[in-house]
Design goal:
The complex is a heterotrimer of chains A (about 325), B (about 260) and C (about 280). In chain A, about 35% of the residues lie in helices and about 25% in strands. Chain A has eleven helices and 13 strands. In chain A, the strands form three sheets. In chain A, strands 5-6-7-3-8-9 form a six-stranded mixed β-sheet, with helices on both faces. Chain A has a four-stranded antiparallel β-sheet with strand order 11-12-10-13, with helices on both faces. A three-stranded antiparallel β-sheet of chain A has the order 2-1-4, with helices on one face. Chain A is an alpha/beta fold and about 325 residues long. Chain A folds into two domains: about 220 residues, Rossmann fold (3-Layer(aba) Sandwich); about 60 residues, Alpha-Beta Plaits (2-Layer Sandwich). Chain B is mostly helical and about 260 residues long. Chain B has twelve helices and two strands, in the order ααααββαααααααα. Chain B is elongated. The relative contact order of chain B is 0.15. By secondary structure, chain C is mainly α. Chain C has one domain. Chain C is about 80% helix and about 0% strand. Chain C contains twelve helices and no strands. Chain C is elongated and about 70 Å long. Classes of the chains: A alpha/beta (about 325), B mainly alpha (about 260), C mainly alpha (about 280). Chains B and C meet through helix 3, helix 4 and helix 9 of B and helix 3 and helix 9 of C. Bound molecules: adenosine-5'-triphosphate (ATP) and magnesium ion. The site of adenosine-5'-triphosphate has 13 residues of chain A, from strand 2 and helix 1.
Chain lengths: ~325, ~260, ~280
Amino acid sequence: MTNSAAEPTALIRARGLTKAFGARTAVAGIDFDVRDGEFFGFLGPNGAGKTTTMRMIAGVSPRTSGTLEIFGEDPDLHGSAIRGRIGVVHQQETLDMELSVRENLLVFGRFFGMDRASIASRADELLELFQLSDRAKDQVEPLSGGMKRRLSIARSLIATPRILMLDEPTTGLDPQARHLLWDALQRLKRGGTTIVLTTHYMDEAEQLCDRLVVMDQAKIVAEGSPRQLISEHASREVLELRFPNGTDSIDAAILDGIGDRYERLAERVIIGCENGEAAHARALAHGLNPESWLVRRSSLEDVFLRLTGRSLDE
Amino acid sequence: MIASFAPRAFSVFERNVFVYRRQWLMIVTGFFEPLFFLLGIGYGVGGVIGTIPYAGSDVPYAAFVAPALLASAAMNGAIFDSTFNIFYKLKYAKVYDAILSTPVGVGDLAVGELLWSNLRGVIYATAFLVVMLAFGLVHSPLALLAPLAVIFIGFSFGAAGFAITTHLRSWKDFDFLFILLTPLFLFSATFYPVEIYPGALRAIVELSPLTRGTHLVRSLCFGNLNLLMLVDVAYLSAISLIGYRHAVRRLGALLLK
Amino acid sequence: MSAAQSAAPARSLSRLAAIREAAPHPTRWRHVVGYMLAVYRREWQGSVFSAFIEPLIVLAGLGIGLGVLVGDKAAAITGGVSYVAYIAPALMASSAMNLGAGEAAWPILARVAWVRIYHAIIATPLNAADVMVGAIAFIVGKVAFAATFFAAVLLITGITTSPGGAVGMIAVSILTAFAFAAPIVAFSVTQKTDQGFAFIFRLIITPLAFFSGTYFPIENLPGPAQLLSWCTPLAHAVALSRSFALGTPLTLGWLHILALLLWGLCGTVAAIYLFRRRMLK
Ligand SMILES: Nc1ncnc2c1ncn2[C@@H]1O[C@H](COP(=O)(O)OP(=O)(O)OP(=O)(O)O)[C@@H](O)[C@H]1O
Ligand SMILES: [Mg+2]
C-alpha cells in the first residue's frame, strides 16, 4: 500500500503520541505523518482527542509520552521557533475583542517579530483576500460568525506560516460561508501551505483532505485518503430503511440476508451492499415494511459507522 | 536585559498600547483619585491638623501625605492592571491562548504585561509629582527621582497582583482582593506616621510593601536620604521576583496544559 | 365633522392607556426584586466585603487613625465630640452612596447589555417600568441591610450612643441609596460598555465623598464649591445623618429630605424613560 519505505518528507511526525490529563487519557499512543504541502484531516466525534492532538502539534501542550517532531524538531525543546512557522485557528474564537479588525492583524504580526512595514502590507493583503477590507476599522464584536472565522484565519496567516492548523473551522457557519471558506483553504493549499484540520463533518473531510485519520476515543481507527477509506471500509452503495417505531423487533437473521453488512440504529437500519435497489427488493421480500427508504453512495459517515458502531452525529 | 530573557515581551506591551489608544479615558480619570485625596484629606483635614513632626521638624500635613499618595497612585495603577485587566484576558477573552500560539512564551507574556502595568504606575506618579510641584509640596530636588523609585513599587504590586490573579476563579473573588487592598492603602503609613501604631501592630505595618514604597518616596521628597531606603528597594525587588516567578509558573500550568 | 369630534376623546383615552401601559404596575415589580434576590443568594459572598467590611475599615483608618492626629483640635470642627464620632455618621452616608452607586452601575449594565436578562423579563407581562422600579428597590433594600449592620457596629462600639439616632441614620442611608442608585441606573441603561463608569466614579462619586462635609465641614470649602456641594445629594445626606447621630438640631431638615427624595424620584422617572427607549427599539 502507500505507506512504503519511500515516504516523502514529513513536516509533522508522531509516534506513540500520548496525552493524559490526570487519569483521563485524551490521546492514547497515536502515529501519523503529515507531509509537505498536503491537506491533512483529523476526523472524529466530540471528545475523540482532536483538539488535544492539535495543541500538542502547536507546541502549547507538552505530551505525556511518545515522540513528536515538527519540521524535524521537538516542540518541547523548540516551541517558540516552531510556533513561529505555524498558524493556528482555535476551535473557540480567540480574537482580541479590545482591538479593531485590522489591529488584530497588526498586533499579531508583532508577536511573530515581524517589522511594522511588512505587517501593514501583509495585513492589507489578507484583509483583501478574506473580503474584510471594508470592515478593517470596525470592532470585532459585532462581526458575523463567518466574518470572525475569516478574520481568525487571516490572523493566523499573518506571518505566512508553512503549516496552517484549523480546529473545526466551519462549525457554526451557514452553508454559503462554509463553501467560501473551503475555497479559500483550497487556494492556500495550491499556494503551497500545508493544512491540518479537524472536523466532524464527513463532507468537509471528503471535499478537502488529501489524507485523513479517523479518531475515536483517543485512538486512530483508520487512515488514508477519503476514497481509500470508503473503498476499504464500506461497500459501494448504502440502503437506508426508516422504521419510526424502532428497529429492536427486527430479526437479525433477516437483516443479515439483505446486504454485505448492516448497522442497526434507533430508527434506521443502514445496509451496505453492492446494489441498493436490489437490496431493497430483498428487504421487501423478507417481509420488512419500512416507512421510507433511500439508496445512496457510501460516504465517510459509513466508514465511521462501520469502524465505531456509532453514527458521528449521535 | 529584557531583550535577552524575554525577547518578545515588548510585542505584548504593544498590544496594550493599541487597546488603550481607544480607552485613554480609563487612564486619564485614574489620575484624579490621588488628587482628590490630596485636596480632601491633605488640605481639608490637614487644615484642622496643621503640621506634624517628620524627620525632626514640623511639616505641613499636606506635604506629609502627598508622597504617600504618589506611592499609592503607582500601586493602584499597577494593581488594577495586573488584576482586573489580566483576569479578563486570561479567563474571558482568551487573549493569552491566542498569544501563546505564536512564538511568544509565558515569560514574554508576564514581562510584557508587567512592563505595561508599571508604565501606568509611572505615568500616574509623574503626573502627581507635577501637581506636588505646583502646590509647593516638594522639599528637595531628590523628589525628581520619585518616578524612578515608583518603578520598584509598580513591579512589586504588578507582579504580586498578577500572581494572585492566576488563582482567582471568578469575578466574585475580586471582592476578596479588596479585603487586602483597602487596608493596605489606608494603613501603610499613608495618612499618619508608622510611629502612631502600638508595638506588634507597627511591626506588621512596617512589613506592608506600600509602607516601604511610601517610605522610599517620602524620603526622596523631603531629601531625607537614609539607609532604610536600601531595605525598601531590596524588599520590593524581592516581592517582584517572587511574584513574577509564581505568575509565570501558574500561567504555564493554566495555559500550557 | 362628527367623526373628528368623536375621535378626539378616543385618542385621549388611548393616550391614557398608553401611559398606563408604560407606568410601573403597583405590585409586579416585586418579581424583579425576587429575581435579583435569587441571584444575590447565589453570589452574596462576592459583595460581603464591599458592603459590610470596607466601610468599617475606612472608619478605622480615617476615623480613628486621623482622629489621633487631629486630637484636641477636633473640637474646633466637631463641636466637642471625638473626630471618629464626628465622621462615623457621615461615612455611613457615603458608604450608602458607594454601595448604591456601585450596584446601580456594573450589575445593571451587565443585565442590560451582557447577560441581557432584562430582555427576557420584558417579554413577560412585566414592563420596562416594573424592571426599573424592581431593580432600584432591590438596591435600596440591599443598602438598608448594610446600613443596619454598620449602625449596629457603631452602637456596640459606643461610637454612636443613641439608638433612636441610629434608626434615623439607617433611614438616611436608605434615602441616600435611592438618591444615587436611581440616577445612576438611568445612566447605566444607556451605556454599551463600562467605560463611562470611570467618569461617574472617579470624577463624581470619589470627590463627593471628600467634599460633602464628610471629613471636614463644608463651610471650610471655598464659596462656589460649597454651593456645588449642596447641589449634590451627599451633602444633604451627611447633614441629616450627623444630626441624627449627634442629636444636634438641624435647620430646614425637611429640605434635606426633600432634596434626596427629589434626586431619587427624578432618577427613577429618567431610568424608566431611558430603559424603555433602549428596550423598545
Ligand atoms: N485541559 C484539559 N483537562 C482535562 N481534560 C481535558 C482537557 N482538555 C481535554 N480534555 C479531555 O480530553 C478528551 C479529548 O478532548 P478534545 O478536546 O481533544 O476532544 P475533541 O476531539 O477536540 O472534541 P470536540 O469535537 O468536542 O472538540 C476529552 O475527554 C476531554 O474532556
Ligand atoms: Mg475539539
